[in-house]
Amino acid sequence: MKQPRHWFIYTNNQSNKKRFLDQLYTGAYLEEYGQCSQDKTRLFSDSEIDRLISEEERHDFKTVTTPNDQPLNAMSSGEQKKALFSELVKHPPELLILDNPFTHLDMASQSELKQLLSEIATQSSIIQLSSRVADKLPFIKRCSVLQADHQITAISEADLKTHSFPKHIVLNSKNIPPPLKPMEMEGKEVIVFDAVNVSFAERPILQNINWTVNKGEFWQLSGKNGSGKTTLLSMITGENTKGYGQNLVLFGKLKGSGESLWEIKKQIGYVTPAMTRLFNGYHSVVNMVVSGLFDSVGLYQKPSDLQLNLAAQWLEVLNLKPLKPTNFKDLSLGQQRLVMIARAMIKHPPLLILDEPTADLDDDSAALFVALVNKIAQESDTAIIYVSHSLEPSLQPSHHYLLEANALGSTGKVVT
Ligand SMILES: Nc1ncnc2c1ncn2[C@@H]1O[C@H](COP(=O)(O)OP(=O)(O)OP(=O)(O)O)[C@@H](O)[C@H]1O
């Protein structure tokens, strides 16, 4: 048996990972990694999960074995990742490629995965692509950086930790621009969950949730994989009908008391990595920001000069004004997330939901994103709910709501 070898490749948000993987299989990196044949290689990544979900939807069959025979798309993001991993290691491949393996996993699951990987590393070679230096698996000693020009540059393990990678932009010191027309909301309570319960097919998920989010508050929402964070958020955004018939008050109105889904949605700014991942249109950066005024992703109607000017002010705060006419798709991942948050905030909605917004961002882009969120919290009346497993070091939430998993459904508590 060939002796397994392992590599860590730091990817920043300019790195073209897809191209790297395509070239890896064609033998373009023969000297570094040897011949990597596609049939002896398995990929552990979010893109692989997306691919399997669409395969399940198209062909109506299960691509991985899951508890309770659940389809992948009905599982939480952490559960999907765990199911894919269990499937991959049933027959350990010659080469396992890990692309940001720890995103979406809670802390305990991250430690568990680290342990499993160190065991698998005795029989499979591993290439770990990661945009976070701190995520490097400790047993990997060969390190390199995937540059924007597709070159791989070797770097020592010690230098990787201290290396100062090129900095992206910083935020402008200007205040965020006010909305063209303030959105009115009665009272100070943006959301009130009062003894709310949720089950899926008789399986209790959330029990007796009592949670109030007031105007201008900045909440971190956390909990283990599968504890119900996305379910809770989907009751607010309207994707989940389970909020009806319960004591759930959104923007001063009891849910189901006559307001349309559209009326609820337009009061919420929403940023999730999947939004940018699945976004396929060709739109300029400035149009993407303006589109937040029309509640569309991408612009499909002619904006006024006032609206264009407001979007330009936002881009100035992000120090992205020179990129106004650039195609959104040509931005780095970090820049795209900043534009998405400006798009979500341009109206100053009463509520901004950020669901794992720094997933897959490199260290520097994540720090910049967090600085923008802190700034929005300080300079607006918008209430923020920020969902994340690994708390970014400089994030400054004013409150913390924790879901604690339980066989009878998760319970929630305010952490003080
Ligand atoms: N449509 C559905 N049908 C059946 N079960 C579901 C459905 N949607 C979610 N669940 C289950 O509800 C539980 C809570 O899922 P949810 O996505 O809210 O968790 P989460 O806290 O967001 O997890 P993660 O941190 O992994 O993203 C999970 O066990 C999930 O499998």
TrEMBL record:
Superkingdom classification of source: Bacteria
Keywords: ATP-binding, Nucleotide-binding, Transport
Pfam family, one: ABC_tran
Domain spans labelled ABC transporter: 191-416
GO molecular-function terms, A-Z: ATP binding; ATP hydrolysis activity; ATPase-coupled transmembrane transporter activity
Gene Ontology CC: ATP-binding cassette (ABC) transporter complex
Coiled-coil annotated spans: none
Protein name as catalogued: ATP-binding cassette domain-containing protein
Lineage, broadest ranks: Bacteria, Pseudomonadati, Bacteroidota, Flavobacteriia, Flavobacteriales
